[in-house]
Write a structure and sequence with these properties.
With about 425 residues, the protein is mainly alpha-helical. The chain has helices at about 5-10, 45-75, 80-95, 95-105, 110-125, 135-160, 165-195, 205-215, 215-230, 235-270, 275-300, 305-325, 330-340, 345-355, 360-390, 390-400, 400-410, 425-430. The protein contains 18 helices and no strands. Helix 10 (about 235-270) packs antiparallel against helix 14 (about 345-355) and helix 10 runs parallel beside helix 15. About 50% of the residues are buried.
Length: about 425
């Protein structure tokens, strides 16, 4: 035995090939077939940018009611002045959205979503640093305008990215619910520690997201071009108006509960302030889950059936929430109410764009903007009932309001569809434009 063979035997290593055998080269990998498409991306991977952007944008909507009490405490504003700040945000976000939606449909404004997030964050962030009330009011109005700029442009772009998947659109819609949910969670500790000047801490997320969206505009331009050529069909205005009515009813119930649920727990159920905040968190958290679940359900049973399903489930949830005694058992139905109420949310956004196939920006401006904001404008009416009969009267009224959505849902129909290519499939074959240098 040679010295080399003895060394191999000592360490117990077998020879790599049998005696006299020659190593065989592994067969080369087969090249991909010409024209083969890459495997489809997951829903989250496709939609994560727009879901996160929507969360950051709607964070600034939620920061307005979260910060208003601290303007009262730090600046000595009256309740009328405080409500004026909320009105400024609502006016800035509600009224312009349909008109901005028309602009999105008619012009190339790929920058608008990025600019909207930036304006929303800068307006809200700077509002705590200025002293005159008029300046604060104007900055909050501008923040609302930024929110209005974001929704139509982002709603159109998200639909182009999602294609026909309601589950994908639900990621975008749920982003808004997450942002609204996080606003009081993030703002309250900062505002308690540093006062209203802490609003400046929320400027960086807006700047970062705006930068990322602006960098993404090249990809979105290709998707938009493919979608424009694939978009066919006639606009169906009658069912769209019915759908808008359903969204208004949903918004009224959502805004009324979000406004009074803490007071209901504290003053009617005799719970602590912390438990009242927990009830609000359960309600908003259930809404996030309901938005995501609604998209999955719609992909299985259809859009219109999902809208009707949410309307049917929410009524018994509201009744149980109002009638169940104790401070802890109703928490389950607070979450259940949020879940059922938001099952149709993403579905209504997508269904509106299906009804107006040639005007996706207009549809998003109405379903994500105007219709949602109307709930906030009607909330003072419930305040009159709460002043007269307590917050429990608001929840008694809410048990009946969703019936209007059920009636309107009977007049909805599935949108007419014509064969078309998916914009995302076309994107794979399109050359990507060179990035800016």
């Amino acid at each position: 035995m040679s010295q080399h063979e003895a060394a191999e035997a000592a360490v117990g290593r077998a020879a790599p090939y049998p005696a006299g055998a020659r190593p065989q080269a592994s067969p080369p990998a087969k090249p991909a077939a010409p024209g083969a498409l890459p495997p489809p991306e997951s829903v989250w991977r496709r939609m994560r940018l727009w879901g996160i952007a929507h969360a950051v944008d709607d964070l600034y909507q939620g920061l307005v009611p979260a910060s208003v009490p601290y303007f009262v405490l730090d600046r000595g504003y009256s309740y009328v002045a405080a409500s004026g700040l909320t009105l400024a945000a609502t006016l800035g976000s509600a009224i312009p959205q349909p008109f901005l939606g028309v602009a999105v449909d008619r012009m190339r404004v790929g920058w608008m979503a990025a600019a909207g997030v930036a304006v929303a964050g800068l307006g809200l962030g700077l509002s705590g640093l200025v002293q005159p009330y008029v300046a604060v009011w104007t900055l909050i109005l501008l923040s609302g305008l930024g929110v209005a700029m974001f929704h139509p442009a982002a709603g159109k772009a998200a639909r182009e990215e999602a294609g026909d998947s309601t589950a994908a659109m639900s990621v975008f819609a749920a982003g808004g619910s997450v942002g609204f949910f996080l606003a009081p969670v993030l703002a309250t500790p900062a505002l308690v520690a540093w006062g209203v000047g802490a609003t400046a801490l929320f400027i960086p997320p807006a700047v970062l997201v705006a930068y990322v969206l602006y960098r993404n505009r090249h990809r979105q331009r290709v998707l938009a071009a493919a979608a424009d050529t694939a978009r066919t069909g006639d606009d169906q205005w009658t069912p769209f108006f019915v759908l808008t009515g359903i969204e208004v009813v949903r918004s009224v119930v959502f805004s009324g509960i979000a406004t009074f649920i803490e007071l209901y727990w504290i003053r009617h159920l005799g719970a602590s302030h912390a438990l009242g905040g927990t009830a609000l968190a359960f309600f908003l958290g259930g809404g996030v889950l309901g938005t995501l679940a609604g998209g999955r359900i719609a992909d299985r049973i259809g859009l219109v059936r999902t809208v009707r399903l949410g309307g049917v489930i929410v009524i018994p949830m509201l009744v149980a929430l109002r009638l169940l005694p104790g401070a802890y058992p109703p928490l389950l139905f607070a979450a259940g109410t949020g879940f059922a109420l938001n099952i149709p949310f993403a579905v209504l956004v997508k269904l509106g764009q299906d009804y107006l196939p040639t005007r996706p920006g207009t549809a998003a401006g109405v379903t994500l903007g105007l219709a949602v904001s109307i709930g906030g404008l009607i909330s003072p009416v419930f305040g009159l009932a709460a002043d007269a009969h307590g917050p429990q009267s608001v929840f008694a009224i809410m048990c009946f309001v969703p019936a209007a959505a059920l009636v309107l849902g009977c007049f909805l129909r599935e949108p007419r569809r014509e064969p078309r290519d998916e914009p995302r499939d076309r994107l794979r074959d399109e050359p990507r434009p060179a990035p800016d240098r």
